[in-house]
Amino acid sequence: MKDEKIKFPLEKIVDPLLQWFGENARSLPWREMPTPYRVWVSEIMLQQTRVQAVMPYFERFLTALPDVEALAECEEEKLLKLWEGLGYYNRVRNMQTAARQVMEEHGGSLPADYGKLLKLKGIGHYTAGAVASIAYGIPVPAVDGNVLRVITRVSADHSDIMKQSFRTKVEMALQEIMPKHAASRFNQALMELGATVCLPNGAPLCEKCPWKEFCEAKKQNLWTEIPAKSKPKPRRIEEKTVFIIQDGEKTALQKRPSKGLLAGMYEFPNTSGRLTEEEALIWAKKQNLSPIRIQKLEPAKHIFSHVEWHMTGYVIRVDELSEEKGNLLFVEAMETEERYPIPAAFGAYTKYMNIRLGNEKFLDD
Question: Which residues are catalytic?
């Protein structure tokens, strides 16, 4: 590997960082009682999701599934419903697979071993490091995007943070300077600094930073250039037409395939392409439905990591919905809100069913 070591003297970051964290750490539910299970759940939820969005989900998830055994045994639709609105549903599927591994191989307790944690489904180097250090105090690094940002900025390193080789180099460098007695606080402090001071979007709050006296990016005014990232491939655009099919009381849903994007979730019936009203009515009749009237809805867009859905929507009022319409399921709004997990991709159209998804259901609680 070229340039094996980071040239900046990273040992100088440790003491100011730990002092700053002691004075500025946020009060977060998973920090108050950092059991291995709670740390694991929080870290998986926090992947690609903001802290404020995660907090109410975390509390509800832990209430419903308080331990590894409960997660391992949870029925799929209940599990997906608990996750509804968080997105990236493979995260929770992998968690359940890992929970079953833990029940079978580790007696129901997450192993206090970095290498064994890495062998669990859905747990990579970062999550293994977070669980090992925060829950068990094992001195191993936990390098996420926040950590890569603060380390590259303090050292004015223009390396591409998307490359695994550079992430490995940062892990090795942090392993060398990590205080053995304070692995948990050190890793959390690095993450916290990136989340609250050396921000992912917008200018860093340099005057609040414990490293402001020696940060090279601050000295050289490089924060707009660092961290350096290779550009991802452009997302594929998919046109879809979404149908809100109703008879006055019930709305049609269908279950997505058991594999692939949004596997096992429920959705409004839809088809590829951007259909006109006339084409939408033809589509409905092919489903053995009897349309009474149709209303075109506003267009909507949903962005996944590799694909964008550009959606056209229609409410189609039909005569009485029965159970004899192919793979369509006919449900009332209250039943849907309680039971059937619908991904946020369809959030623009759930208001026509008078339901709320994910966190929305709990805003008035």
Answer: 43
